[in-house]
Specification:
Strand content: 5-15%
Largest sheet: 8 strands, mixed
CATH architecture of the largest domain: 3-Layer(aba) Sandwich
CATH superfamily of the largest domain: NAD(P)-binding Rossmann-like Domain
Strand order of the largest sheet: 3-2-1-4-5-6-7-8
Structural class: alpha/beta
Radius of gyration: 21 Å
Main location: cytoplasm
Order of helices and strands: EHEHEHEHEHEEHEHHHHHH
CATH class of the largest domain: Alpha Beta
EC number: 1.5.1.2
Mean pLDDT: 96
Catalytic activity: L-proline + NADP(+) = (S)-1-pyrroline-5-carboxylate + NADPH + 2 H(+); L-proline + NAD(+) = (S)-1-pyrroline-5-carboxylate + NADH + 2 H(+)
Low-confidence stretches: none
Subcellular location: Cytoplasm
CATH topology of the largest domain: Rossmann fold
Helix content: 55-70%
Number of strands: 8
Binding site for NADPH: 56
Bound molecules: NADPH dihydro-nicotinamide-adenine-dinucleotide phosphate, (2S)-3,4-dihydro-2H-pyrrole-2-carboxylic acid
């Protein structure tokens, strides 16, 4: 029988994960999602056929896995209110919150709990997510496998041995979709500037990104070689790549990802005390 999974919070990230799980064949009736507002839950019930609940305490009463998917800023209060119910059941805790440490969450929920911290991303909604996972010492092998199975239903899973590496995961894949969306916007706008209709520029930009990612995943060549293969000597791509390099794209990416990881650490300091 499928494990009962309760999502505390039914926003962008939670719906991306349970939507992807259901798409991958996970039984919707084994999934519960909560929100303070039934108005928010009603369309989710209708669309996915999941169970919903406005009372977090009730929602965790029969859960094998509790996925914490509210904003980090309210996590402490949400955990405090569920503490007794969690201690009565001791489910596996999986948190997707940026910046909140496993120890902190365990303490907020009353202690002695198996906690997995997960940094997923929103492409989970289309089965193409990428999640970094870290387990505290109370997590059993069976619970690791359970979490791997849940998250693999929505994409790639990478375990990290040190919790601090989740900051790097956040900087690369957790926040990463937004970097690519920014690049898509810029490429579409550039296409329009060069005379293409906007819809056509968008289709070409997205298909090119999709094709490049698929090709890089399937090829035995590294991205640098694949890039070189597009750059005919003296040709058009070479000019564009030289323009990116002259504008120090690599430094821009380095600075943005460092800022992202630094914010994850800052949030841990601000919220985790
Ligand atoms: N978005 C992303 O790409 C990623 C997000 N994350 C993490 O996921 C978590 C959620 O983010 P995201 O989904 O973007 O945020 P959302 O705001 O979309 O979702 C949070 C949801 O929690 C609900 N909520 C508020 N209070 C409670 C409560 N007491 N009990 C249950 N639910 C409640 C909110 O309802 P209402 O709107 O009615 O207040 C909202 O629907 C964050 O911790 C974030 O760090 C991690 C990786 C990627
Ligand atoms: O921006 C954020 O804080 C969350 C965490 C990673 C992606 N979105």
């Amino acid at each position: 029988m499928a494990s009962q999974v309760t999502f505390i919070g039914a926003g962008n990230m939670a719906s991306a994960i349970f939507g992807g799980m259901i798409e991958g064949g996970y039984p919707a009736t084994a999934i519960t999602a909560t929100s303070p507002s039934d108005e928010h839950l009603a369309p989710l019930r209708q669309r996915y056929g999941i169970r919903t609940e406005t009372d977090n305490t009730k929602a965790v009463a029969n859960a094998d896995v509790v996925v914490l998917a509210v904003k980090p800023q309210i996590m402490r209060d949400v955990c405090a209110a569920m503490r007794d119910a969690i201690q009565a059941r001791k489910p596996l805790i999986v948190s997707v919150a940026a910046g909140l440490g496993a120890d902190t969450l365990e303490t907020w929920l009353g202690g002695e709990l198996a906690v997995i911290r997960c940094m997923p991303n929103t492409p989970s909604l289309v089965g193409a997510g990428a999640s970094g996972l870290y387990a505290n010492s109370r997590v059993s092998d069976a619970q690791r496998q359970l979490a791997t199975g849940l998250l693999e239903a929505v994409g790639l899973v990478e375990w990290v041995d040190e919790e601090s590496l989740l900051e790097a995961v956040t900087a690369i894949s957790g926040s990463g979709p937004a970097y690519f969306f920014l690049f898509f916007e810029a490429l579409e706008a550039a296409g329009v500037r060069l005379g293409l209709p906007a819809a056509s520029a968008r289709r070409l930009a997205l298909q090119t990104a999709y094709g490049a990612a698929r090709m890089a995943q399937q090829s035995d060549k590294d991205p640098a070689t694949l890039k070189q293969n597009v750059m005919s000597p003296g040709g058009t791509t070479e000019r564009a790549i030289h323009s990116f390099e002259a504008a120090e794209l690599r430094r821009i990416v380095e600075e943005a990802t460092e800022a992202c990881a630094a914010r994850a650490r800052e949030m841990a300091r601000e919220l985790g005390q």
